[in-house]
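We now fix the convention by which a protein and its fold are recorded. Here is one such record, which you should read through line by line:

>
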Amino acid sequence: MESQIKKIHEQLVSKEITCSDLVQQKLALLKENKYNTVNSLLEITALEKAAAVDAKIANGESIGLLEGIPFGIKDVYMVQGTTTTASSKMLENYKSAYTATAIQKLLDAGAIPLVKENCDSFGHGSSSENTIFGAVKNAINPDLVGGGSSGGSAVNVAKEYTVFSIGGDTGGSIRQPAGYNNIYGLKPSYGRISRYGLMAYASSTDCVGPLAKSIEDIRIVLNTMSGKDAKDQTTVASEDITAEEIKNGSNTNTVGYFKNFIEGDAIDAKVKADFVASIDKLKAQGIEVKELDFFKGNTLVSTYYTLAMAETASNLSRLDGTNYGNRIEAENLIETYAVTRSESFSEESKRRIVGGNQVLSQGFSDAIYLKGLELRDQIAANFEEDFKEVDVILSPVTPGAPPKIGDSLKDPHAMYLSDAYTVGFSLGQLPTLTVPQGTDTGLQITAAKNKENKILKFANFLKDTL
């Protein structure tokens, strides 16, 4: 698909449409939607900003490329004055006192926020069913899950309720729902975009990223949000990626894939067949394809969840009803803490908090948590060696198709294993893009850290090849 941002920009400038009409149309679609993607609408703000854009155009003033473009925000980002719930009972009435850096950069560029989007509570899930607002329904088949945790963001883009949306990816939470709904979703290199104002799940792998229906729109939004931020010491400076440098035509001579991903028992037969067919098409284009050895999927999942649960137990310890969150009074302070957290966290959040506290506890931390840290270092080192041999790594996004709504809730272990192909790249802090080609749930393109330009260019090549 062509860039929707550029198309709408041209329509606004030529006065073919007004920004107010565009925003009203999108708001109407969001109000009528039956996919449970909306936690709250930012209607007053959106219409005020749209009127300001129309006034500029009427006065003959120029507007920026993102000015007047409607977008959605996963409901884990602070936007000053709005309710930011994380789709949880704990924060159902919490109002943001400030705005996340990444969102502020989009607002400064003139983009118009429409909606805070439904997601798994605190990002805890792979289906967007762990939410007080009801399960997000898949854009293609509403009997299936929308994916998670950024399910509402992915579905809104797929249904064109928003032009793009901002999700959050800790272990696959942008890439997997993008694959389930046949759109593009980018997890950038860790540190490329500021995490300030994003509710922390696992701070060492949390990433801010865009979902959109075109590669060019991903590029535009990525450039806008990227850069060093004094409020987030993990951020790094980065250069803008130009449209010219990612034009069609492969800059990739060698593609790698992990043979154990394809030869394992977890992968669905159709996903495997489609992936192998995609590899054969690349070979027919003269691209060298190399099999790579990597950690088994269950090792990756175990390592990721050990570290992620430990970090989320620490990050969510502040939510006890005293300074943040709903408070449920009991007979004494200890009981108040206990009842507040027991009643206000979802079952999945409680499962992860308990698991995290266990791996951090005396007698377990050396055997489990420190082992997880050691494995993470080994995984990162493995990737460094891989990228000495190949330009990009190609992999399925998920082992199988999206499950029916309700199935993941019955089997949390199966839900964790569905992340087998995404969490490794998170642990390596690498840039990874889901593209809607190759299998029913798409393909992932991964490159070395800070090489987003390489994966966007290869995505353009795949778009014309597969």
Notes: The domain at 4-246 is CATH 3.90.1300.10 (Amidase signature (AS) enzymes). The radius of gyration is 21 Å. The longest strand covers residues 112-117. The longest helix spans residues 365-389.
